[in-house]
C-alpha cells in the first residue's frame, strides 16, 4: 500500500505550483523518455491529488519523489525540489548528480557565461533541437528582455544545472555560437 506520507508530500509540493506551472509539470512528465512512461490521457484533468496517486502508482514511492524532484529542477524550481527531496528523506545524491570529482566547465565558469554570452537565442535553438529543453521553457527564456536574464534563467534549469548530458550539450553549443568567449575561458582555465 502506498505510503500516505509520500503522497502527502507530493500533493503539498504540487499544490504550491501555479496552474500554468502545473500544466508544464504534466507536459514534462508525459514527455519523459525513460520507462515507465505516463500517457497524456492519464494526466488530462488530473488535479494535484490525482497526479500524486498516479505518480506513486506508476513509479515506486521513492522513484515518484525522484521524478517529481527532477521535473521541478527542469522547471527551474530548485528550492522546491530540494525541499521535497529533504522532506522525503532522499540523500544528497538525488539532489545533484555525481560529477566524478571534477567540476564541469559550465559550473566552473557559470558567472562568466551568464555575464558574457550574448547569442542566447541561437543557443536555445540548439538546446531545443537536442531536446534538452521543451518548447514552453524555450519560449519562457526567450521572453526575457536581456541576454543576462536569459542566461541566468537557462543556467538555473534542472536539465542544465543537474544533468551532465545537458551541460555537455550546452558546452558544445557555446563552442559553436560563442567561440571567442569560450576560447578565452578555456585559455584562462589552462593558464
Description:
The N and C termini lie far apart (58 Å). The radius of gyration is 18 Å and the shape is elongated. The chain is built from 14 helices and no strands. It is mainly α.
Q: Can you write the helix and strand succession as a string?
A: HHHHHHHHHHHHHH
**What separation lies between the terminal Cα atoms?**
58 Å
- Compute the number of strand runs: 0
Cα gyration radius (Å): 18 Å
| Helical amount | 55-70%
- Low-pLDDT stretches: 92-101
- Give the biggest sheet: none
- Overall pLDDT confidence: 85
Strand content: under 5%
Oligomer: single chain
Would you summarize the structure shown here?
The protein has 191 residues and is mainly α. It has helices at 4-15, 19-31, 40-43, 48-58, 61-74, 78-87, 105-108, 110-116, 120-129, 135-142, 147-156, 158-161, 164-177, 179-190. It contains 14 helices and no strands.
Main attributes?
191 residues, mainly alpha, elongated
Topology:
Blueprint: H1 4-15, H2 19-31, H3 40-43, H4 48-58, H5 61-74, H6 78-87, H7 105-108, H8 110-116, H9 120-129, H10 135-142, H11 147-156, H12 158-161, H13 164-177, H14 179-190
Helix pairs in contact: 1-4, 4-5, 5-6, 8-11, 9-10, 9-13, 13-14
Amino acid at each position: 500500500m502506498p505510503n500516505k506520507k509520500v503522497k502527502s508530500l507530493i500533493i503539498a509540493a504540487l499544490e504550491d505550483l501555479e496552474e500554468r506551472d502545473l500544466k508544464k509539470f504534466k507536459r514534462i512528465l508525459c514527455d519523459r523518455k525513460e520507462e515507465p512512461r505516463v500517457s497524456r490521457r492519464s494526466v488530462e484533468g488530473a488535479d494535484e491529488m490525482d497526479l500524486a496517486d498516479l505518480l506513486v502508482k506508476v513509479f515506486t514511492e521513492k522513484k515518484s519523489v525522484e521524478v517529481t524532484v527532477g521535473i521541478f529542477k527542469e522547471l527551474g524550481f530548485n528550492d522546491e525540489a530540494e525541499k521535497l527531496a529533504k522532506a522525503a528523506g532522499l540523500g544528497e545524491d538525488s539532489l545533484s548528480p555525481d560529477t566524478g570529482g571534477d567540476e564541469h566547465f559550465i559550473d566552473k565558469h557559470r558567472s562568466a557565461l551568464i555575464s558574457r554570452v550574448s547569442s542566447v537565442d541561437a543557443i536555445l535553438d540548439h538546446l531545443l533541437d537536442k531536446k534538452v529543453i521543451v518548447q514552453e521553457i524555450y519560449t519562457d527564456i526567450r521572453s526575457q528582455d536581456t541576454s543576462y536574464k536569459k542566461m541566468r534563467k537557462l543556467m538555473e534549469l534542472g536539465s542544465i544545472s543537474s544533468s551532465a548530458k545537458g551541460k555537455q550539450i550546452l558546452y558544445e553549443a557555446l563552442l559553436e555560437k560563442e567561440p571567442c568567449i569560450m576560447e578565452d575561458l578555456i585559455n584562462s582555465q589552462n593558464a
